[in-house]
Amino acid sequence: MIRSIPFKKLSLCCGLSFFTQIVCAAVQTTPYLAMHVQPKYAKLKVMPYANPFAPKGGILSQSSLGTFDNLNSMNGKGSSTEGVNYLFDTLMDRSLDEPRVMYPLLAEKVSYDPDHLKYIIFYLNPKARFNNGQPLTAEDVKFTFDTYQTKANLGLQMYLSDLARTQVLSKHQVKFIFRSDNNVEMPLIVASLPIYSKQDWINRDFSRVTLQPIVGSGPYVIDRIDAGRSISYKRSPHYWAKDLAVNKGRYNFDRLKYVYYRNLDVSFEGFKSRQFTLYEEKNIRNWMTAYHFPGVQSGLIKKYKAHLHTPLDIQSLVFNTRRAPLNDIHLRQALTYAYDFEWQNKALFFNQNRRLQSYFDNTDLAAKGRPSAAELSVLKPYIAQLNPIMRQGVVQDWHYPVSDASGFNRRNLLTAQKLLKDAGYQIRKNQLYDRQGKLVQIELLMQQENQPRELMPFVRNLNRLGIQVNLRQVDVPQYMERIRRHDFDMMVFNMPQTLTPGKEQAQFWGSVAADEANNYNYSGIKNPVIDRMIEKIVAAKSREEVVLYTRVLDRLLRAGYYQILTYGKPERWFAYWNIYQQPVIKPKLSVGWEYWWVDAEKAKKLHQSVQKH
Predict the structure, then answer these.
(1) pLDDT tens, 183-226?
(2) All structural domains of the chain
């Protein structure tokens, strides 16, 4: 017997059904992960910056400074080894040409609602295996993230703070549930972290330093460890993912090797004597003057400039605004005029550096010129909350002061003196006193590896302003401990920036991070407008919104005079023994050396040439 359903109930059921369809329709399942952008390579069988016919074989060897004692780079203990990331696969693999786009690796597809990111489901590839042959399952993924949230280094735990829990749905399905529903970075973050084997850690302590090999699912496995001196990896002969689109023509070297040196000079000599074959040159003087030895002159060594579309590192002089005298924005603004980049670039850097004008330099995220109408619209509700100096700075066509490169910097120092005088500072007997009559003294903290000669012109200019400066050079452990405890006035620092800004910006500039040890807000910035702009970046629904809010953040950071941005290079410099080939098309966001390969003919000629000598 079929019962009739009352009209009202039928209408309600239909309405609920229709509503459910609308909700479900927002959840998309795709063989890629793209946050508010359209992926360019979703249908390709091989990435455009790869040569699928590249031969396998040979070795790529590089150098590293210092030493190492830990294969587990995720627990934040000791000194982790170079290249350890090649032991592991991630859920998806980043495109080297597209921000916020990832393609299948351990996971073959994902389900999520791009407009309400409360969760994301990854569907693991059933073929995924660890290098010991054991299947990689959702249990391993859950173990990995549960461990990260409880035993990883503090920075990573904070990076994952928006992850509420990881849930196993089936052997090959894992669900990440987030605390908020608007953090577009979280799916990309969880998709990009290495996955560990749960079985491998049953009788091991994740939080301890270890040189015992770790089971991974990546393209390489440990070959040989010479503790503290070198580490080499060999290509996994049974790598499960070698035929995926992201991996065709990739990982062509049979072996990778990293040789450790105590300092750059010894490292360079090691490269010249072929102790390793690929060298990234970071010393401008070397690049301009030291490559005239026989290996270069005979063509056995090639120099190579990689032009990347990635942000330049934030290299800066950091002001600690938590304590006097640098808690005064008037003083910080004046000190900006004492930094003479033009003379330094001419006298020390062969005019090869360029002045950083943005915290996102070399990208479309950098604020340029006067604010656009869209930027002004974003700023308008907050302008009244800003300090008058910031209020003026955010609407300007921002440029740091320019000197005549003579070394005297007279015009800028006169400007600095006027700013200080207008702010109530006084000079008595060539010494600067603040508004309370206290002598202005600053300690400038730096690591032993920093070159004092780069800072002495700045120190001399501060002395001309009547400021006493103590240049304090300490070893790396002492330096890290002091900045961790915020025990400094000024310091020299270098920090990478990202093309896809998100929640990490709160660690760099957010009010909460200012009071947390081991975080990256070294300036101690506590500005509610900056906090609000970071929230807008995290919640952005499109790349256009990310660019808009980041440009406004850039303006706020510059106008707050929290740091003096110094200099950077718009390219990376390499030298290599001439046995390598590269694909014709280069990736825009990475050097992409894992797509290089050994040219057998060139290797043979090099061997014959060395044998002759």
Answers:
(1) 888 999 999 999 999 999 999 999 999 999 999 999 999 999 99
(2) 32-44+70-201 (3.40.190.10), 220-310+571-612 (3.40.190.10), 314-568 (3.10.105.10)
